[in-house]
Write a structure and sequence with these properties.
SSUH2_homolog; two-stranded antiparallel sheet; 7 helices; Multihaem_cyt_sf; binds zinc ion; Protein SSUH2 homolog; 452 residues
Length: 452
């Protein structure tokens, strides 16, 4: 009998302890520094495609192009600072990675936010009772068995894929014994949600700013946002409502432009053709104006700097020439499928081959939190399930478990013993595709190549 009654008597800790630690809204503010914040450079953040939900439309930071009156990469004159001086920041100067943190606004609930992403653990949430969703735990009947003819056909198709395998073995072999077996493939997929906050900025060229005067910003887990599809990796970047403010650009110090690195702010470079002389010798021996620099903006012997269009300054890339940036707290929501698996295979078929073929789905279950299975006829699978389910309950303590799915597949594996030219040998046929695996195929050409 394949079926065994399942009881819910196991003493299972579903990681409830982890929630006790974070069960107060106030405590979620004491966020943990994310260990691996891969895209933390704020400059890069704005390059990412930002998806916004309808709910957030109104909070979108105004893009600098929205003004329509100013050219995006114009050649506006450099702005002056509070003392009326033009701020000269060289393009070659080390680029500050972000504005100074002490200039950022104080936002209630976001006190520890920096320019690096910080993971915010979810507040305690009530998990659905696991048994409420668990359906039928019956095991499906056994897989179909391969016949001698199936085995021979499978071996022949394997031979056809290898240029140096001879067909004779597959045609002439005498099958002496067939052993039927099954491999089991257990998989657990945990779909988790992680929320991280960081300061971010974008060029500011005018438009509405959704600042703290519009109301108290919602806490990271109070912002409603859902994944597009369950069990699919996805990242959404959301500006936290009411956290925006306008600051002077840290790169150009508010000037909007930088000194051109090519001409060092002069707007011209020495003409290479006449070496700065302004004259060139004609064939007849008379001097005439150098063809290359005679109409230059900055006089003879000088060529206009192409990089800055002879202006000596280039637009600041950080603020897009506006001199101002809009700073806001960005919420990064990452949904991820975390998978773990275990394979039981008692013949000598490599595990990767077991994973690569289809089989019978013997058991499939989805719930907010699944219970380990204990009813599968193979005890190793039950043990693996217990271990993996518990490991996942511990592994994502700073994330929210949205949904879990566990599957057991039965993959038919047949061992075929045969005799060819007075020698005994063995090969395997596995999966619903009847794929063959013959590691010691006796009729390979001398080069031993196994190119497909
Ligand atoms: Zn230049
Ligand atoms: Zn010249
Ligand atoms: Zn700037």
């Amino acid at each position: 009998m394949l079926h065994r009654e399942f009881t819910f008597t196991e003493d299972i800790d579903y990681g409830q302890g982890q929630h006790d630690k974070i069960d107060q809204a106030g405590k979620q503010r004491s966020a943990v520094q994310a260990a691996a914040a891969e895209e933390t450079t704020p400059g890069k953040m704005k390059e990412k495609e930002i998806e916004t939900t309808d709910y957030l439309e109104e909070f979108k930071p105004s893009a600098p192009i929205s003004t329509g009156t100013l050219p995006r990469h114009g050649n506006r004159p450099p702005k002056t600072n509070a003392h009326g001086h033009i701020v000269d920041v060289d393009e070659n100067e080390a680029v500050p990675s972000a504005p100074p943190l002490e200039l950022m606004d104080h936002v209630v609930g976001y006190e520890s936010v920096s320019f690096d992403a910080i993971s915010v653990p979810p507040p305690f949430f009530e998990a659905e009772s696991p048994d409420a969703e668990i359906s039928n735990r019956d095991i499906l009947p056994n897989c179909p068995q391969v016949t001698e003819q199936d085995a021979r056909t499978a071996l022949l198709s394997l031979v056809a894929q290898h240029c140096c395998y001879g067909k004779d073995v597959a045609k002439e072999m005498a099958i002496t014994k067939i052993n039927y077996s099954s491999a089991f493939h257990y998989q657990l997929h945990s779909f988790t949600e992680k929320r991280e906050t960081s300061w971010a900025y974008s060029p500011y060229g005018g438009g509405e700013v959704d600042g703290v005067e519009n109301g108290a910003p919602p806490l990271p887990w109070e912002i409603e946002c859902y994944p597009g599809t369950l069990f699919e990796d996805e990242v959404k970047l959301i500006p936290v409502p009411h956290t925006s403010s306008v600051k002077s650009c840290h790169r150009c110090k508010g000037g909007g432009s930088l000194l051109c690195a090519e001409c060092h702010g002069k707007g011209w470079v020495r003409c290479l053709s006449c070496h700065g002389d302004g004259w060139s010798a004609s064939t007849s021996g008379y001097k005439e104006r150098c063809f290359y620099c005679h109409s230059s903006t900055h006089g003879h012997g000088r060529q206009d700097c192409l990089k800055c269009n002879a202006k000596g300054r280039v637009p600041c890339p950080t603020c897009d020439n506006y001199g101002q940036i809009q700073c806001f707290i960005q919420l990064t929501i990452s949904w991820k499928v975390n998978s773990a698996e275990h394979i039981v295979e008692r013949l000598s078929l490599p595990e990767d081959l077991v994973k690569s073929v289809s089989g019978q789905v013997a058991f499939e279950e989805e719930a907010q939190q699944v219970l380990p299975i204990g009813h599968f006829p193979d005890e190793t699978i039950n043990m693996a399930s217990t271990q993996i389910v518990h490991a996942h309950a511990q592994a994502f303590s700073d994330q929210k478990l949205i949904r879990q799915k566990q599957v057991v597949r039965i993959i038919p594996v047949t061992e075929i013993n045969y005799r060819w030219k007075n020698k005994n040998n063995v090969f395997y046929v596995f999966g619903f595709e009847n794929r063959a695996y013959a590691p010691d195929y006796p009729q390979k050409c001398c080069c031993g190549c196994t190119i497909l």
